[in-house]
Amino acid sequence: IGCLLITLLKNSDRVKIACLAQLVNVIAPIMTENDGETWKQTIFYPFMHVSNHGRGVVLTPSVESDSYSVEGFKHVPYLESIATYNEEKSELVIFAVNRSQEEILEFVFEQEGFEFESIIEETVMEGFDVKATNGAGAEVVKPSAVQKATIADNHLTTSLSPLSWNVIRVKVK
Length: 173
Hints:
By secondary structure, the protein is mainly β. The protein is built from 2 helices and 13 strands.
């Protein structure tokens, strides 16, 4: 779902509205039992992050990444990424997915036109079994705060775990 949301952001100059059919389906982001508990599905969190932080101007990065092949596609990059700039908050938000099933990606964000002040927050969804699900009383797949990213010489560097969703919020000048 993270890659889908990044694709929507990358095409926000053309996509003016997008609907989530799953809201009335069996794979809704929030589930409930009749007269019972509610819980957030694994797809809820990327939607929440992009909805809350994917504001302002979309900055499509030039991405350099190793790739792999699948039927119908010869060069699928392991890294999928996009950034947004919220001028009102002086905030740059980086969304990134590592598609690799085994390799950690070293991620370097070299930007132009902004001066990094500080990292506001770094959130990841990583280390879960690919078939893990959330259920009533058991929200096991959820984001966690980490502090892996560093800023040096106006470059942001972090590592992206295999099969991970990453959100990095940066205060900029």
